[in-house]
Structures are given as C-alpha cells and as structure tokens.
Amino acid sequence: MFCNQPFNRIEIYGDGNVYNCCPPFIKNYCIGNIFKTPFNEIWNGDKVKYLRKKILEQDYSLCSDICNQKDNNENNILNYTETVEKYPEEISISSDSRCNVMCKICRDENFYTEYSKENLETEINNIWLPIFKDTKLLRFGCSGEPFSSYKETMIIKKTAEKYPDIKFHFHTNGILADEKLLKHLQVFDKIDTMTVSLHSAYFWTYNKIVRGGNWKRVKSNLKLYSKMKSENIIKNFRLIFCVYSENYKDMPAFVKLAKKYNAIAEFWALRLVENTHIGKHFDEYSVLNPNHKEYNKFVRLINQPLFKDTNVILYPELQKLIGENYG
C-alpha cells in the first residue's frame, strides 16, 4: 500500500490551515498556515517532510483507519522523495463554511467564515493564486456550498481567468450552479467532476433532510449536468448519499435515479458532526450501528444485487456489510 497524497495534494481551510488530506483521515495533522507562513516554506517544511518520510517508510501511524486514499500500486513509491519541487497538482479549497441550506446531517444552524470583502482581492492575488501555479485540479465544496460564497466564487473566477488550463471539481448541493452561473464564473467548459450531495431519491425525503432546499431546481440542474457529461463537457458526474435512519430506504431508488442521469451513485456512512441534533443522538440515527433497531433491515437492503452495479460506490464502512448475515 502506498499513499501519494502528501506528495501532490493539499486541503486549505478558511483559517488558513493546510493539510495533505481530509483532516479526519490524517488525525488533523496540519502542515502550516498560508496566512502565517509563505507557501513555499509550508510545501517543503519540516512538518510535511516528516509526514512524507513516514509514508515512504510505509509507516501510516499519522493516518486514520477510516482513510480510503491509499494507492495499491507499490511501484509508485519509487517516484517520490521527501522534497517535492513542484507545487501540488490537486488542491481542495474550503475557505468558507457558509451554505444556502441546512442539511440535518451536517448542521443545525448556518455559520460563516469571517473575512473582509475590501481586502479579499488582495488576499486572492497575493496568497491564493500563487499557490495554484502547478495545479491541475482544484476542488471546492468540502465544508460549505461554494456557489453561495462570495469569497469562493471570487477565487473560482479569478483562478479561471489566470490559469485557463486548470480543471475544477465542484461538490455542491445542486441548487445554485445552473448554466448561467457556471458561464459567468468562466468554468462551464472547465469542469472535471460535478458532485452533488442529494441524500435522497424522492422529494419528500429530500425536504425532510435539506432544510431550505429546492427539489425542482436540483432536478433541473441534474438534467444539465447529465447533458454536460453526455456531451463530454464534464468528465465525471457523482451523486452522494449519506446513509442514516431517515433515508436508507431510498437507497435502491437512488441507484436508479443516478442511472437515469448517467451518474455514479456514491454511498457514505453517516458522519459524526458534534453539536448537532443528529450528532448528539448518533447511535439512534446510524443504521450501521449493529445495535440499531433497523440494522438487520438495512443490511438486508444493502445486499440487494443492484448495489453491485458498476455505477455504485460504497464507502468501506458500507462495503464490509456486503455478504454479512442479516438474520
């Protein structure tokens, strides 16, 4: 097993902290802060070199057991050293946690990353854009809705103008990102992947989960993304479904919905988000808990043949239940 994340990828958050992977996957091991240290010193600093050294030694003690990023190609290890000359090829941006909806599985109230619009252009030009000089893929949407954020839409638009060859991966709730907005941001023909968090197959389930959502607009934009994929304007189209007690019965219909729109159906386990109602009652909502009253029903459902279809991805916590005895 070999993970190449620390050698070519970073994630940057609103406070400026930099990680080589999703923070929970790497036990929140932060390699620096772009607002406190020049990025060239972060990218080949002592903290990241220490991480790379451990990975090269096949020591994953800094990584979480839930990580699913490891590469199976052991020969890749020969191509990497502790010092990396080029800046990261893949960057995930989570500069603003605001969102235009409140999904029950994510938040009970909205919250915002504070920033000054007056200083934003200087910040983008002097701090953010230079980091992208070797970037091939830029991701947005790890902690909020990128298309509801003035800051992130500014970063997107300025990046598209300065680096026309960069491709984008957007993780969105699918409400705001219509054709008009994508063209305004100059990214309509620069999208590698469009990922939509839906968590449902029917409007009644959607309305229960996505507070402030708009099922009609989402369905319209799903048609748009499907058309873009069929015309090779976007390479990948994914629909995300985070499984918990109030939506798991929609899972078979969700697979069919994804097929309808020529998308991958990707199923995640419920995340523990503390300080939310679901987070405080996690065991009551997580049907992956063997003690949950509907656990056997859930395992029986996920063992249906359609979950082995080529357009279905089950995250490891779910995949391990395939073939399990469900009573």
Write the layout of secondary structure elements.
Layout: H1 5-8, E1 9-13, E2 17-19, E3 32-33, H2 39-43, H3 46-56, E4 90-94, E5 102-103, H4 117-131, E6 137-140, H5 150-162, E7 167-172, H6 179-184, E8 191-197, H7 203-209, E9 210-211, H8 215-230, E10 236-243, H9 251-260, E11 264-269, H10 277-280, H11 282-285, H12 295-302, E12 312-314, H13 316-319
Parallel strand pairs: 1-4, 4-6, 6-7, 7-8, 8-10, 10-11, 11-12
Antiparallel strand pairs: 1-2, 2-3, 5-9
Average pLDDT across residues? 92
Largest sheet: spatial strand order? 3-2-1-4-6-7-8-10-11-12
Biggest β-sheet, characterized? 10 strands, mixed
How far apart the termini lie comes to 35 Å
Order of helices and strands: HEEEHHEEHEHEHEHEHEHEHHHEH
State which percent range the strand residues make up: 15-25%
- E-strand count: 12
Number of helices: 13
Low-pLDDT stretches: none
**Helical residues, percent:** 25-40%
| Rg measurement, Å | 20 Å
Shape: globular
Please identify the structural class as seen in this structure.
Answer: alpha/beta
Could you please describe the fold and organization of this structure?
- This protein is of the alpha/beta class and 327 residues long.
- It is built from 13 helices and 12 strands.
- A 10-stranded mixed sheet has the order 3-2-1-4-6-7-8-10-11-12. Strands 5-9 form a two-stranded antiparallel sheet.
Question: How would you describe this structure in keywords?
Answer:
13 helices; alpha/beta
